[in-house]
Specification:
The chain starts with a helix and ends with a helix. The chain has 8 helices and 5 strands; from the N terminus they run H-H-E-H-E-H-H-E-H-H-E-E-H. The chain is of the alpha/beta class. The protein is globular, with a radius of gyration of 14 Å. Helix content is about 45%, strand content about 20%.
């Protein structure tokens, strides 16, 4: 039986090791192989390629967090991963997905890219991308 991210988080919360509400709000910091592992486990993965110094990235981050806080279905349906552009911008994942720049948001499931946004900060656009992960 394959253990999912949600099962791990719930199990850890039951043991008092990790509060569920906090876990649902935190993006997972990318490390090489992480996204591929989540996809192989059957997860839908929302990937945020960003840099701390990027104002567009910060604006996108505020919208993403507000949407997640307003709709818990997003956290139930997908795993959110933040890729530090300064560290991994030219790395394997960025090359494999042909990521043109920081402030790129990509939604993945299995071998399929469900959608992407580059340098857009409008709530409606980001919501539409996140909604693709609900289906």
């Amino acid at each position: 039986m394959t253990t999912t991210r949600r099962q791990i988080l719930l199990g850890a919360a039951a043991l008092g090791l990790l509060p569920v509400a906090r876990a649902a709000q935190a993006m997972i910091d990318y490390t090489p192989g992480l996204v591929q592992a989540w996809l192989a486990a059957g997860e839908t993965v929302f990937v945020d390629f960003s840099a701390t110094w990027c104002s567009t990235c910060r604006a996108q981050g505020r919208v993403i967090e507000a949407l997640r806080a307003a709709n818990p279905a997003y956290d139930a349906a997908m795993t959110f991963v933040k890729v530090d552009w300064d560290t991994h911008g030219t790395g394997e994942l960025s090359r494999a997905l042909n990521i043109p720049r920081r402030s790129t948001l990509v939604l993945l499931r299995g071998e399929e890219e469900l959608g992407r946004i580059v340098a857009q900060t409008a709530e409606a656009d980001i919501r539409a991308l996140m909604d693709l992960g609900l289906g």
